[in-house]
User: Fold these one by one.
Assistant:
Number 1:
Amino acid sequence: MIVSENTTTNLPISNGKLAMWLFLATEVMFFTGLLATCMLLRESAPIPGAGIPYWPNQKTVHVEPWLGAVNTVILICSSLAVLLSINALKAHKISSSLFFLGTSLILGTVFLGVKAFEYKGKFAHGIIPGKIGECLPGMSVQREKLLQQNGLAYVRKVQTQLRIICAGVTNDNLKDQSDIIKNAYGLYLLTLDGKDSQNDYMRPLSPAQLGEKVNLLLAEYPQLHLPPAIPNGNLWASCYFALTGVHAIHVLFGLAFMLGIFVKGLFGNLQSMEGTLEVTGLYWHFVDLVWLVLYPIIYFL
């Protein structure tokens, strides 16, 4: 898409800028609706039981505010680089414009890389919509009954993960294992048939009891890749991936447009892309502003 600066309307801006402002107006409505929906879901989330927080905290869902802060700085610097590129192009400094545009591209890519790293951590800990156990002791009978299928699926998932962690471990060689493996193996036996490491009968763990034990084990050994039990965790994960995923898609589109301009500039046609670069810059600033709104909501609320 090439936007000509000579194409104007009766307004003191080009057609391209007018179209972008109109598009951004619809985007404001879209993100406002998305944010409002997530906030409404949060405020209407059921209270699991006495003493159980109704909404997951940052530590529970492995959200690192410092990573979000790093990404915020990266995106702000990328937005600044686009602005410097536009100003350099208006001053006919093609090399400087290309340099700043390339810098913005690199920073935008790093932003997505950091976000991918965060996603990897969520996947490793099983914090995925529809895959999180929500039962914990103290819940009402009605609430636990409502989550019965979720609880059974959670037990199977934990059992599978523990089987992988404890591969090759038996009662005979258990004494030679590390403390983390001993604890994981003991929990694994309880998920199988309700027997402890001495093969004495114990009542099989309910999903709520298993969730409590998994959370305690993770508190002591956070390096274990076990899915925690998080009341309303699936709702949180749905909101998290919806907000950050949609924003990441917008970042990808912005990078694609800037890459096209950058490649064309390498072939000596950057001056003709001044209008397009300005319009793309508007879009990129909007993406930056959206993240400035999302950051405190995701990482601190």
Number 2:
Amino acid sequence: MWVNENGSIGYHISTLAKQFARLDAQTARQRIETLLDAHVQASPENAHPKPVPQLTRAVSAPGAKTAAQDLTDIKNKLDAHVKKWSNLAGDIFLLDGDINRATALGDATMARHLQSKLDARNAEMQKLIAETRSHVMLPAGERGKVSFNHFTPTTKAAALAGAKLAESYIHPSLLPTVNAVDFNRNRAAHYRGMLLINLKTDASTVMHEITHAVEQQSPHILKASQDFLKKRAGNESSQKLSDLTGNKEYKAYEEAYEDEFFSRGGEHYAGKIYPDATELLTMGIERLHENPVEFYSNDPEYFDFVIHTLQQP
């Protein structure tokens, strides 16, 4: 396998056939994954620095509004929902514990009653999330388009769904040009403008990978992210993600700064370290979509950074 000048991954069928002919299926699969890791994991998001490609980005039409969101206005709108979110989150937490206790005691009637109340609170929370998303999304008439040079047949639907989501949160001038390539692995990825996804990749994950392309294709966005990560990390040393998360599927070389990403409601993965990429905007935009008022309430500094960087370039 090798990487072509255009960033695509090439391979020689005859050579691969000879290499794998005497291997059992499990060993062959592991060998293929190792070969992929040598290229995909050595992307700008993972290991060796690569020059930033000069790709065309979508821009607003002449005379169009800037689509920049006023951060103060957004925060004022979210402030009106913080108390309701806090009350709902508290109720959901307590009800979940009560259901577990009722179940442990064998009180099925009480468990069903509590589950009904929990379902109602969760429905209220989803309604609140939908309402607060409208405060952090760009106005529909001011959104741009992610540009696709190529789809594989099995990636088109997922790619377009993720792009539509990304367009809701990212300023038109930052939207990247990408390709969507079928990648039959559990973890989606981004490699030099290629979205490595498949037909099962959900829209939020595709948006995550598109945001990697935003960072890669906009040097000032990358610098802002790197500076913010350094600020948050301070003097702390990096740690293995497998140790921070307890997830041993992370490779030994995958490290992150702990900071307070997890304790403030996010994921340790947000602090992941790369030579020339970060996971700040990718994880931040997913969190912004998942529950804007939770993000704003629990980690206001990170929230401000994501809104300011992606919507006010």
